[in-house]
Design brief:
The strands form 3 sheets. Strands 1, 2, 4, 5 and 10 form a 5-stranded antiparallel β-sheet that branches. Strand 6 and strand 7 form a beta hairpin. The protein has 168 residues and is mainly β. It has strands spanning 74-76, 80-82, 87-91, 100-106, 115-116, 128-132, 136-141, 146-149, 155-158, 160-167.
Amino acid sequence: MAGSTKVVGAGSTGPTGPTGATGPAGAPTGATGATGATGPTGPQGTAGSNGVNGATGATGATGATGASGSFTESYDSGWFAVSGTTQYDKNHGMTGLAKVVEVWWGANATPTQIYPCNFNDGGTNYFANIASTTTQIKVKRASTYWAFSNVDGNLYMADGWIRINAYR
């Protein structure tokens, strides 16, 4: 029929068709904007209290020189490595001869235990020499190793580290 329109009849709805493919992703997030300028510095705060103990007081006067026989100067060499029969000369910086010299042995530069060096162990010739001049403390091992005793009274001999303390 010419000029006629095809009419679809009213009938039942057909089955649902398959789901279509996922569409493309949207546009990515835009670029991060620039950081704004730094704001002005605020006013200086007020000073707080000096705390529970208050302000530090002035330094007191220097005390009188000790009685004869007391120590007025000291020297500490710090730990240094030693071995064999090498002589070690340390400038002590005191104004004269040391009255007392101590030599301590340790296994390393930061020992957790220290022992006094033995300068005569009773006859086996494992002893060290020590001397004080007006400018130096000198120590030298006379045998192959540095000797020291621990609290159980046993004698040990080993290379290691020593520290010299001197008092005048």
